[in-house]
Amino acid sequence: MFFFENRQVVTPGDLLAEGDYIAGNNTYKEGSRIYASRLGLVEYGEKVVQVVALNTFYIPSVGDQVIGKIEDVNINGWVVNINSPYQATLRASEALNKPFRQQKDDLTRFLDVGDLIFAKIISFDRTIDPVLTIKEPGLGKITQGQIVKVSPAKIPRIIGRKASMINMLKNETECKITVGQNGIILISGPSPEHERLAIMAIEKIAQEAHTSGLTDRITEMIRKEKGAKK
Amino acid sequence: MSGKIRLINENGLRVDGRRPNELRPIKMEVGVLSNADGSAYIEQGKNKILAAVYGPREVHPRHLALPDRSLLRCRYHMAPFSVEERKSPAPSRREIELSKVIKEALEPAIFLEKFPRTSIDIFIEVLQADGGTRCAGTTVAALALADAGIPMRDLVVACAAGKVDGVLVLDLNDIEDKEGEADVPVAYMPNLGLISLLQMDGSLTIEEFNQSLNLAMEGCKQIYKFQKEALRSRYVTIKEEVEECLR
Questions:
Q1: What share of chain B is helix, strand, coil (3-state, %, to 5)?
Q2: CATH architecture of the domain with residue range B26-246
């Protein structure tokens, strides 16, 4: 049994459903009752009841690709800020292509404080802070482009169903867009104009994340902007 | 000196013209501070209180971190200008106690165990005080927590009831609190039906105490409606901004 209509605003503690359902994101289950645990919009699926949150923070999860900033350099690795309550570490062995020799290698030559990296989380749980790697293709130090920060809650919307939104953005703005699950997005395009357009589109998506028909509206907006420029 | 001031007049109305079971006018707003992760503001009668929430974030100093759950810290503070006679800005004995009491009232509502080794910091700033600030502070802090996107079992809402001139009244103001016979602040989680704060100051019979408790819980349920409305309107304002952009 459902107690709200689909896509209605719910607040923490609201009783969403009772019966044989699965508690999805931002909900919790007590007996057969499902309650909301965050402010957001309720979504009733076939089996799953979930809440699309209005505001969240990033909690690391193994396999996520994130954009982080080097905060500190240690003897055998780096401390990375990944826009999360937990500070990540990047070991030298996960960054260098050759064996790491503590006496000889100067880590600041590879990555220094303030550098940005695109990395993957290889381990994280309740007891240990996240550990990163940049040893896979596509990962590594970020050398060019612009950074946009959005709430991590909006990331699924920016990617879209089956990556529809992000592919549209890439095609329309001709920019390379790298989305970090932690809410940080890297945009690098052929010109600052192209990048500006992509940033504008992403900020608009983040602002209107909870409206429908967004992909089409954003496409229209980008085309209009592009037309005005020519 | 009770007896000198008449707190209930011949028509059964209170000093500010309220009926015994009537709340003060309430105004709430969510998301008022842009530097905090979550924030809220409440006006309850003459009370004006701001709350800001930061976190979950890294714990400083590091050694305070808990291995199994998030560390909840709360600072209740009254501005020097919040009361008639200037209050020293240093935390008083009373403020330290209220910080602890409010923290403990909010703790059961938050999924602290989801974020081990982090801290959640709540700052409650009383800009103007007129009695019942611990309750209003708890109510507004719960809103700020929800605004920060911190997972919660339920909202927490608080309200006081008490006895003034022999009459049981709801939501005491400063004079009623000081000159009255008793004060019972209650913090309540309305969906779960659980009480997370219950204090009593003064003297009541067991019968009067039970009635006060029920009265305070009724008050909580009324304030809860304002709380929900404040959170919903946060969403509505975002939606309106969007529609404005579309035009």
A1: 35, 30, 35
A2: 2-Layer Sandwich (3.30)
